[in-house]
Amino acid sequence: MGALVWGVALSVTGLPVLAKILAKLKLLYTDIGKTAMSAALANEISSWVGLTVMISLGNNARKAPWALMSTIGFIVFCVFVITPSIIWTIRRTLKEGYYSEETICVILTSVLACGLATDLFGTNSMIGAFVFGLMIPNGLLGPRFLEVLKGFVEDVLMPVFFTASGFRTNFGTLTSYSSWFLVAAVIAVACLSKVVSTLVVAFFHGMPLREGVALGVLMNTKGILALIAINTGRDRALLEDKAFTVIFIAILVMTMATQPIMSLLYKPKKSFLPNKHRAIQRLKQDAELRILACVHEAHSVAGIVNLLEASNPSRRSPIIVFSLHLIQLTGHTTALLIVHGPNQTTSQSDQGQVNHQILKAFEQFEEEHGGVLVHPLTAMSPYTTMHEDICNIAEDKRVTLIILPYHKRQTIHNNMEELNHAYKDVNDNVLVNSPCSVGILVDRGFGKSAAVAEDSGAESIERHISMLFIGGADDREALCYARRMAGHPNVTLTVVRFVESKTEVDLRLSDLIEDETGKVSMEAMDAQVEIRLDESFISEFRHRTAGDKSIMYFEKAVRNGAETIETIKSMCQGFDLFIVGRGMGMSSPLTAGIDEWSEGSELGAIGNLLVASEFSSTVSILVVQQFAGARAAGEGLTNPWPSESHFEPFAKHRDMGNVY
């Protein structure tokens, strides 16, 4: 029977430990990570079966059939009797979204009872507790149950178990070179057998050699089940001290080596999947707009929800919203992505209540608008890697626009108060690494206006939006988004374009020509391309919106940054929202000197100017940055609009009076 213990302990893959390693390597949501987790799950289930058989045969070979049949009968009893009873008990005792302490006590007592039952049947108490845990429906009691037990289990029971396993390890049995050679041989054979068997399966499924080797290395991860197997074998005299020590060392080395080997062996290339919808400017007519709305705290939800509502969702041109609640994790806790299902309960902790408020706000938004579909998500990770989760989700969900809250909020004295400087770091990192366009919302009451209208009994509220156009890819993307919003029956759009005279443009371009050779520099060529794109874009925009009374277009002639500032100051009143481009990579005399108002690169020159206290404290601001890949690929050089009828679906929504 000792051979069975060896087989179970060295063949099992620890699913929880593997999840932590994959999360640290940022591979948890990649193809290889998903494959590894699925394989580890199947492996761990079969290992529990092997552990049950091992314990049954180890106790008494003659009574093994009775022990196995009893355990199987117990599992059937749990499925058809205990599970329905748990569901009935939980739903009956549920009061205002909270579970009573009596329910928790009943559940904990049931765990002990199930463990005692399987121990009496001749297997092991851990098997009964494990089976009972599987019977608890996901989402009904899980969060509350974890909240009660997590600290005690992680801080008391687990350290005691690991310490006890360490005390049972007798290094005195490994005194000769042959003993340590046996340890090395066991590790080599166990690792190579996993890698080779995984490579064979990978070959038949057409996986690349590199991924097959990496998957084999990941399968060598061991967890608590391996320790349970060798401790159980030691308790039943199936293992001697030397064998226990050899397997213990092998488990430790194999698990410790997995992460550093994977770090060297498998470094996934960061490449974006083919996706033409990474920028709003490239969307075709009637195409759905996929938005990733990120939220740190509950107070920023209202502004983002109202921005989404003003984005003109309809059944013909729907908006798919992935609401992402960002939660900081500290210490060594593993990063985690939670996909919320319908009617899923949350924890009773303060963070759980914030999450519940955010979920309810987006659920209500979805219920009130037929052209909206919301997928609620929660990402738990440290601030240093939070941007990676945001970008990975945006890539996986084929998002067109990421909306982030500004890292400051307005106080009652109309000053901007910093919430958390780490929020700014997250925003900056997303702006640099984003796989799509990004918008940063500075909410100065855009979320309150709807609440005021609701309290006054008004069915809808008029929103006056202004788009400030100076030039460049970011401004063109911002204007595309503003045009979509203008299709809403209760939204009016004022586009203000700041222009300089043709003479000044020619002089500026001539200054960029190299004096020595007379050749046009790359900077001058890029500037000329951007000017042509802006002219073509604005010309097409004016032509297609000429008959739309909800859109007003003005041009303001300015010569420098000072005149731009004065013009913006004079028009700060009367609008609910300013939409501007971030303007990165653009050099224009119209913004010269405005950078002095800047407190960082998060909002760009115009965005930081509008946030300053010298300007209106009641107008919200949306700063848009177009996906860098769209600019690098030169998209829109010949046709700034993706189709001949880019505006028609939005205009028709207004004409038909359809508001969803």
TrEMBL record:
Q: Which UniProt keywords apply?
A: Ion transport, Membrane, Potassium, Potassium transport, Transmembrane, Transmembrane helix, Transport
UniProt keyword annotation of Kinase present: no
A single Gene Ontology CC annotation of this entry is:
endomembrane system
Where the record annotates domain Cation/H(+) antiporter C-terminal, the positions are 465-629
Q: What membrane topology does the annotation report for this chain?
A: Multi-pass membrane protein
Q: Which InterPro entries match?
A: Cation/H_exchanger_TM, CHX17_2nd, CHX17_C, CPA2_transporter, Na+/solute_symporter_sf
Query: Domain Cation/H(+) antiporter central, which positions?
Result: 318-453
Q: Where in the cell is it found?
A: Membrane
Ranges annotated as spanning the membrane: 35-55, 67-90, 110-136, 179-205, 212-231, 243-266
Is Membrane one of the keywords UniProt gives this record? yes
Its BP terms in the Gene Ontology are:
potassium ion transport; proton transmembrane transport; regulation of pH
- Cation/H+ exchanger transmembrane domain ranges (all copies): 3-261
> Which one of the record's GO molecular function terms can you name?
antiporter activity
Q: Which family does it belong to?
A: Belongs to the monovalent cation:proton antiporter 2 (CPA2) transporter (TC 2.A.37) family. CHX (TC 2.A.37.4) subfamily.
Which protein, by its recorded name, is this? Cation/H(+) antiporter like
User: Per the UniProt entry, what species is this protein from, by scientific name?
Assistant: Actinidia chinensis var. chinensis (Chinese soft-hair kiwi)
